[in-house]
Amino acid sequence: MEKLNDLRDLLKHELQDLYSVEEQIIAALPRMIEKASNKELKNALTEHLRITEQQKARLESLQQQMDAGQSQEAPGLLGRLFKSRMVCEGMQGIIKESNKILNENMNPDVMDAAIIACAQKVEHYEICGYGTAKAYAEELNLTEVARVLDQTLNEEYDADDRLTVLATTRLNRQAESGNKGGAAKGRGAGSSATGGSRSGAAVRQEQPEMELEMASASRGSAGRGRGLRCRA
Predict the structure, then answer these.
(1) CATH number of domain containing 45
(2) Which of 79, 101, 105, 161 is most buried as measured by Cβ atoms within 10 A of its Cβ?
(3) Which residues contact 8 (CB under 8 A, 6 or more apart)?
(4) What 8-state DSSP symbol labels residue 183?
């Protein structure tokens, strides 16, 4: 293994790790999509698969930019980034545990809740990785590298928020009841969470969109603040 002599070497190592992470996620997500029953969950995972492929391409683009001399900030920093492929064992472990869960015999609603838990473990690993890499790039004054990493970091926050909203406003309740589409425990089918005359199902249908909009609107400083916890 090549010796890491400075922060630039450490950044390169982190980016190699993230490239392996994206490759493994691209391979793992189709099975989660297949196992999911809830349409919104399937759509969220499918959309994130598309975004993950873009994120992987961005890492490749960083290498090409450096090789072509398009970035004047640190010539050659990523020039040999992907010549020696590194396998991220951390993500291997997360995906291995996720596959064990997916192999369990579960009620479809319980499986949906479990899939969200597995997917969020993946998201949290990525948030820490991209947050750390961005912090290194900023310290090294690699403005373009930091910008690209920040774009991906915010996409990971968005994906995590979307899964949280799905879980806390709908899917966890359905898993708790044990019946797909059943009423949440302790609530009548004709009463809403706010005590109005509208049905609980109707209120829950609107909540994911409302809460996701609120999470996105407050992302600016809040999202970056959360990322700081994962940065070296």
Answers:
(1) 1.20.1260.10
(2) 161
(3) 74, 77, 140
(4) P
